[in-house]
Amino acid sequence: MSHAAHSVSASTVIKPARLLSHSATLWFVVAAAGHFAFLVYIVGFYWLLIAGGGAAGLADTHLPGGFVDGDALGNAAVIAHLLLAAIVIGGGPLQLVPAVRERFPAFHRWLGRSYVTAAVVSSIAGLYMIWTRGTAGGLANAVGITLDGILILVFAAIAVRYAIARNIVRHRRWAMRLFMVASGVWFFRIGLMGWVVLTGGAGIDFETFTGPFLTFWGFGQYLLPLAVLELYFRAQQSTDGRLKVATSVVLLVCTLAMGIGIFAATAGMWLPRIT
Ligand code: HEM
């Protein structure tokens, strides 16, 4: 009797390790869906404009420094940045799907090279754009995205080094860190739009696009995802069930917040611009 009761409870209670694994999968599925929405916007808006009118196609858009007459180098940087953004945003989630890596290793390597090249070139172009043309918002935002660009270059180099050395454990970790920083601009947009929906835009001066929230999120856009990722790595390795459960709760809260932000960014920003 007691034996039967024991086996029933053991099979019905979700084990902390499974809870953590399911929470991480749910986080990833929602993040991948949100990347897809951003990808549709990048291709449907920027690629079509560039295909239709080259650099001049970007004049009179919401981008503050999209096109500057006579600045060929700057215009080329913007075009490269926007074309390659699609590879970064579309390719990142695909690289993280275990089934794709296991079944199609050659594709994983080919896309990995394309992803890293796109992220590196796009970051260098972005660094050039930000310090020659500026961006919406204040100095804090410029410094925040500059640090993000530097982290992309550093993490890409480390992830590639471990891939070449066939150190898969370390490669996987650095590739996931690279994903978080290379998707920083995605986190920025969904975080901003989610915050506006939830708080009505507290801490944001919409005239100047500055304010405490934007200063915080200029850095938080990649530091927060990186911190949650480190927590996840620790919980995965730990034998402490409570840490796994607590981390699962953190992941589920992040997933809910991401879902709200993705909906707000897609409905309020991306879809209206391409329809
Ligand atoms: C590699 C990952 C990155 C991706 C996928 C990416 C993607 C994009 C996209 C899609 C836009 C168009 C804006 C929109 O319509 O929402 C954009 C604009 C811009 N990006 Fe990036 N970006 C990345 C990294 C960076 C970095 C590292 C910097 C700077 C250091 C940067 C600087 C800029 C600037 C200056 C603009 C012009 C818009 C503005 O004035 O705010 N980007 N980026």
Percent in strands = under 5%
Main sheet specs: none
Bin the helical content. Answer: over 70%
Number of domains: 1
Number of strands: 0
**Which of globular, elongated, flat, extended, rod-shaped describes the shape?**
globular
Compressed to H and E, one letter per element, the order equals HHHHHHHHHH
Would you identify the regions where 5 or more consecutive residues have pLDDT less than 50? none
Give me the Rg, rounded: 21 Å
Structural class: mainly alpha
Unique ligands:
protoporphyrin IX containing FE
Distance between the termini: 64 Å
Overall mean pLDDT stands at 94
Question: Number of helical runs?
Answer: 10
Report on this model:
The protein has one domain (34-274). It has helices spanning 2-12, 16-53, 72-96, 98-103, 105-132, 139-164, 168-182, 184-199, 212-237, 241-274. It is mainly α and 275 residues long. The mean pLDDT is 94. The chain is globular, with a radius of gyration of 21 Å. Helix 3 packs antiparallel against helix 5 (105-132). The chain starts with a helix and ends with a helix. The structure holds protoporphyrin IX containing FE. Residues 42, 63-65, 81-82, 85, 88-89, 119, 122-123, 126-127, 129-130, 135-136, 145-146, 148-149, 152, 182, 185 line the site of protoporphyrin IX containing FE.
How would you summarize what this structure contains?
The protein is 82% helix and 0% strand. It is mainly α.
List the defining traits of the structure above.
mainly alpha, 82% helix, 275 residues, 0% strand
How do the strands and helices of this protein lay out in sequence?
Layout: H1 2-12, H2 16-53, H3 72-96, H4 98-103, H5 105-132, H6 139-164, H7 168-182, H8 184-199, H9 212-237, H10 241-274
The protein binds protoporphyrin IX containing FE.
